[in-house]
Amino acid sequence: MKTILLLPAALALFALPKTGHEAAAMPPGEHDWVVDAVHSSVVFKIKHANASWFLGTFDKISGQVSLDPATPEAGSVTITIPVDSIDTNDKKRDEHVMGPDFLKSKENPTITFTSTKIVKKAGNQFDVTGDLAMAGKKKSTTLTVERTGEGEMMGKVVGWMTTFTIKRSDFGMTYGLDKSALGDEITLTIALETNQPKK
């Protein structure tokens, strides 16, 4: 299985990004970040045959984070995960999960999270509420996001991490539920490394 990563969110982190003339007029500030896909990971797990946990990954992720810890309510996050970057360690299974029984990637090529509200919690944690969209469905979801640290690697970098659980049936994915071949709950972990965009 390729190493990559929810979300685990993602999981993940924070008001809508600036667009159009607004983006052109306002250069990125000290609290604006872009996801470094090479150093970020998305991992998911699901129960198989009501027995073992199966883990898979998505090998690509992109997004933007704008968050000033002093005023988190003014922040924003957008995350995009290409469905065709899924890796379950089996090509035929990858194709099945991308197909109509699950993620319906032909009509819905990406999984997205767009924040609508951010609330500061204790320490370095934030509750980030937003719209999670996949398989043609959209659901409001709240992620507990931790700011995991900061460092220097060709410029300042900041890390974020979230682990959260969703029900796939909420997104219209019921394949395998009737005989407990697959569990309904999916736990995702999204670990992001972000750096500042060039001004």
Describe the fold and architecture.
With 199 residues, the protein is mainly beta. An 8-stranded antiparallel beta barrel has the order 1-4-5-7-8-9-10-11.
Which features would summarize this protein structure in a list?
single chain, 199 residues, mainly beta, eight-stranded antiparallel beta barrel, 11 strands, disordered N terminus
List the helices and strands and how they pair.
Layout: H1 20-25, E1 32-35, E2 41-48, E3 52-58, E4 62-66, E5 76-82, E6 86-87, H2 91-98, E7 110-120, E8 125-134, E9 137-152, E10 156-167, E11 182-195
Antiparallel strand pairs: 1-4, 1-11, 2-3, 2-11, 3-6, 4-5, 5-7, 7-8, 8-9, 9-10, 10-11
Spans of at least 5 consecutive residues whose pLDDT stays below 50 are 1-26
The assigned structural class equals mainly beta
Gyration radius (Cα, Å) is 17 Å
Q: What percentage of the residues does DSSP assign to strands (E)?
A: over 45%
Number of helices: 2
Tell me the helix content: under 10%
| Count of extended strands | 11
Shape: globular
Query: Largest sheet, described in full?
Result: 8 strands, antiparallel, barrel
Spatial order of the strands in the main sheet?
1-4-5-7-8-9-10-11
Mean pLDDT: 88
How far apart the termini lie comes to 37 Å
Written as H for each helix and E for each strand, in order along the chain, the element string is HEEEEEEHEEEEE
